[in-house]
């Protein structure tokens, strides 16, 4: 939604209403608060920064002197209690309903991150978010007697891209042999080697927390690592099963409480060695964190760069996306720290724009599901027993059949097929299924037996094996009607295409019929015959076949061109998006101008938005074309397949007619002939039904642009159907002949 403002060429974008990452700011109390430079909005949701002209040179190089940051809340002079209520309470409450939650403290060293997260361990009143979250979890568990809820905790430290377990000193944790690694599986991300501790009560959880805090401090002395230079992630894992056993669903969730390393920029001079290394790692991981969160908020992005650093990888399933996320930025209120404060506030306002879509982590308890199904089954069996007794069917058994029962059914089926058993009584569904099953078994056995008998008596040659057939013919082993030469008693040669004349006993008569016709004494090999067929009777269908193939190829070519165009548009869209993001980040870095929910943007960004819109439109149009083309290609492919099929079938018929079936029989079988056992009246085939007419004209319009061609196409179709019926009739006739 954009509206053009004529006077100064600035434009407005209306803000959306989706759920956002919550961004709060906490200002560290000081006696030296810079009242002239830092002003809070009346709603406690905005901070305005003003730098006096004379100071400006020394503080920032930028010409800008005023910034306005809008957030979800500004906490100044706020108690630990109020901070928890505002920032953490809802996130923790929702974790018990299955939503992952992440609360992070961001800011320069000394601004109060650890104070906010852990608090002072000596003073209960000043305890931070961590102990309060544990308290809330256990309190809520007490309030939910309907659920069995387990709580586990872990405490991870990431220092210079290495992982440390802050709870590894506990007696229950064995010495870790291999270094910890971040592992992903379908359930989510976990850290292999990180100890996770079951805690059944608040007190245990606190002990774990203190243990971790102590280790953090000790490590900073013994390992010479500055605790403000590492990221610490305290995780509370919740798993809630309903105490109602029939409830198969259960929920899991994680609350990650993250105390990030100090975000301060390195001073240009003086840093070297360890400090430089630390700073490099921190700057990298914090900017990767920002990239990952922004990417998560962009619904069009499918790749999120989680693996760029340990921090984002470890938090993969707890950042943005489908979980509740809160960012608390700790800042100083003093003039001397203004540069870092500005940088922290910019980070906060960028995070605030990211949208998330929290979702419940629901799982199914397989064991409970099986138990419930077993119960259901027992109940249904009882129900069935009642029905049987009401219907006076007392001896029916519903259990799976054993081998003896199956053998009995097999014997019933055999007797039924032989005709010695009139019917098979239906008892129950299981028995019916077994009867069908045994029909299949008996049938396949009989097929094998028949083939075996045939093989013992004849040499079988595959009907489609042209080479074998012509070899046999060339060798003179076979005469016209498929008999092996020199077989005195007319024991037929079982060639697949052998017609009824091969039947023993009928030989004399059929031989005579063939002798009277003017045909080649040996049919040509099929490949040769096929070439003849394509030039003669099959010429029309062959032409249509080729034509369909060329239409198909043309459409394929067009689809490939359209795809190339789409890719080019997509590339241009990506470039435009990147430019737009750059403009946006410039705007956000400079602090935003807002006016009653309207955001002001400049001309360059506006033009980019227009361009992107136009590209999207082109993209949609081309995409639509491609979809239509693909549908057409599919249809054409189908036509080509059908044509090929018809071509081969017509050829088969032609081949049989030309070289095997006596002409007098062909005459009686043809439309108007006298013999049509079981055949659909020819008149029905010849006249077009109304539906067919419709289909025909549709075909003409869509698939075959040239009218006369589609007519022959249709002709071929009707002809094929006729042939099909004709073949069926032939077979019927053949059978009648045998009897
Ligand atoms: P960070 O973890 O960001 O480096 P700390 O939490 O260690 O900073 O804070 C530095 C010092 O300031 C600590 O002594 C801490 O007790 C104190 N401090 C920070 N914020 C507050 C606050 N809101 N109220 C009182 N003291 C605070
Ligand atoms: Mg700290």
Explain what the structure shows.
This protein has 739 residues and is of the alpha+beta class. Helix content is 50%, strand content 15%. The protein is built from 21 helices and 19 strands. The protein has helices spanning 53-59, 80-87, 89-95, 113-117, 129-142, 202-222, 273-297, 310-314, 338-352, 366-390, 403-418, 429-457, 466-474, 507-515, 526-535, 539-589, 603-659, 663-669, 682-686, 690-702, 707-738, and strands spanning 2-5, 10-14, 22-27, 38-40, 46-50, 66-70, 73-76, 101-107, 147-159, 162-165, 181-185, 188-192, 197-199, 231-242, 249-259, 324-331, 362-364, 594-595, 598-601. Strands 3, 7, 8, 9, 10, 13, 14, 15, 16 and 17 form a ten-stranded mixed beta sheet that branches. It has a four-stranded antiparallel beta sheet with strand order 1-2-19-18. The longest helix is centred in the C-terminal third of the chain and has 57 residues, at 603-659. The radius of gyration is 42 Å and the shape is extended. The N and C termini lie far apart (84 Å). The relative contact order is 0.08. The model is unreliable at 1-17, 480-517, 674-694 and 699-712 (pLDDT under 50). Magnesium ion (MG) is lined by residues 113-114, 228, 259.
């Amino acid at each position: 939604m954009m509206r053009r403002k004529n006077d100064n060429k600035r434009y407005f974008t209306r803000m959306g209403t989706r759920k956002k990452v919550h961004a709060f700011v906490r200002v560290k109390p000081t006696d030296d608060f810079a009242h002239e430079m830092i002003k809070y909005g009346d709603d406690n949701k905005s901070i305005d920064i003003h730098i006096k002209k004379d100071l400006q040179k020394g503080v920032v190089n930028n010409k800008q002197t005023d910034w306005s940051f809008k957030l979800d809340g500004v906490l100044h002079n706020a108690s630990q209690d109020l901070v928890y209520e505002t920032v953490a309470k809802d996130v923790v409450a929702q974790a018990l309903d299955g939503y992952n939650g992440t609360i992070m403290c961001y800011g320069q060293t000394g601004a109060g991150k650890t104070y906010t997260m852990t608090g002072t361990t000596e003073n209960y009143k000043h305890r931070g978010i961590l102990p309060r979250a544990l308290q809330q979890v256990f309190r809520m568990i007490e309030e939910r007697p309907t659920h069995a809820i387990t709580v586990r905790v872990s405490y991870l430290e990431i220092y210079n891209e290495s992982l440390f377990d802050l709870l590894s000193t506990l007696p229950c944790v064995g010495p870790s042999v291999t270094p910890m690694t971040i592992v992903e599986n379908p359930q989510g991300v976990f850290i292999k080697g990180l100890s996770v501790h079951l805690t059944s009560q608040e007190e245990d959880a606190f002990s774990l927390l203190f243990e971790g805090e102590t280790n953090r401090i000790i490590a900073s002395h013994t390992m010479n690592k500055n605790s403000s230079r590492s990221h610490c992630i305290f995780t509370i894992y919740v798993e809630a099963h309903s105490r109602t056993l029939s409830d198969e669903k259960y929920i899991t969730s994680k609350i990650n409480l993250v105390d990030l390393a100090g975000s301060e920029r390195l001073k240009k001079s003086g840093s070297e060695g360890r400090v430089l290394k630390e700073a490099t790692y921190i700057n990298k991981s914090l900017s990767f964190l920002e990239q990952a969160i922004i990417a998560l908020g962009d619904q069009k992005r499918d790749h999120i760069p989680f693996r760029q650093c340990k921090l984002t990888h470890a938090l993969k399933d707890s950042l943005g996306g489908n979980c509740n996320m809160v960012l608390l930025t700790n800042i100083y209120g003093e003039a001397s720290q203004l540069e870092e404060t500005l940088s922290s506030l910019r980070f906060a306002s960028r995070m605030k724009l990211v949208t998330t879509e929290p979702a419940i982590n629901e799982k199914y308890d397989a064991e409970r599901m099986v138990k419930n199904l077993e119960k259901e089954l027992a109940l249904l069996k009882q129900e069935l027993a009642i029905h049987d007794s009401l219907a006076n069917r007392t001896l029916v058994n519903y259990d799976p059949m054993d081998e003896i029962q199956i053998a009995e059914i097999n014997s019933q089926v055999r007797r039924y097929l032989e005709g010695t058993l009139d019917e098979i009584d239906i008892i129950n569904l299981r028995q019916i299924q077994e009867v069908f099953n045994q029909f299949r078994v008996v049938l396949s056995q009989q097929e094998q037996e028949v083939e075996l008998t045939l093989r013992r008596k004849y040499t079988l040659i595959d009907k489609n094996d042209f080479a074998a057939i012509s070899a046999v013919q060339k060798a003179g082993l076979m005469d016209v009607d498929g008999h092996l030469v020199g077989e005195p008693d007319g024991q037929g040669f079982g060639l697949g295409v052998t017609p009824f004349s091969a039947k023993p006993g009928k030989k004399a008569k059929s031989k005579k019929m063939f002798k009277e016709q003017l045909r080649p004494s040996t049919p040509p090999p099929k490949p040769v015959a096929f070439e003849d067929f394509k030039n003669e009777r099959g010429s029309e269908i062959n032409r249509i076949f080729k034509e369909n193939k060329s239409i198909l190829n043309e459409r394929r070519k067009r689809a490939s061109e359209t795809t190339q165009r789409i890719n080019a548009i997509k590339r241009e869209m990506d470039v435009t998006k990147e430019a737009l993001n750059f403009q946006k980040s410039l705007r956000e870095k400079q602090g935003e101008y807002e006016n009653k929910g309207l955001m002001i943007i400049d001309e360059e960004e506006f033009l980019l938005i227009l361009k992107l819109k136009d590209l999207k439109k082109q993209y949609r149009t081309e995409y639509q074309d491609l979809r239509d083309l693909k549908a057409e290609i599919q249809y054409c492919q189908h036509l080509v397949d059908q044509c090929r099929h018809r071509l081969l079938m017509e050829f088969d018929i032609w081949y049989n007619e030309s070289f095997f079936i006596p002409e007098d029989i062909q005459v009686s079988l043809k439309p108007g002939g006298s013999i049509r056992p079981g055949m659909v009246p020819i008149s029905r085939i010849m006249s077009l039904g109304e539906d067919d007419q419709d289909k025909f004209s549709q075909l003409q319009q869509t698939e075959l642009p040239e009218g006369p061609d589609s007519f022959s196409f249709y002709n071929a179709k009707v002809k094929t159907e006729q042939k099909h019926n004709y073949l069926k009739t032939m077979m019927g006739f053949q059978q009648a002949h045998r009897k």
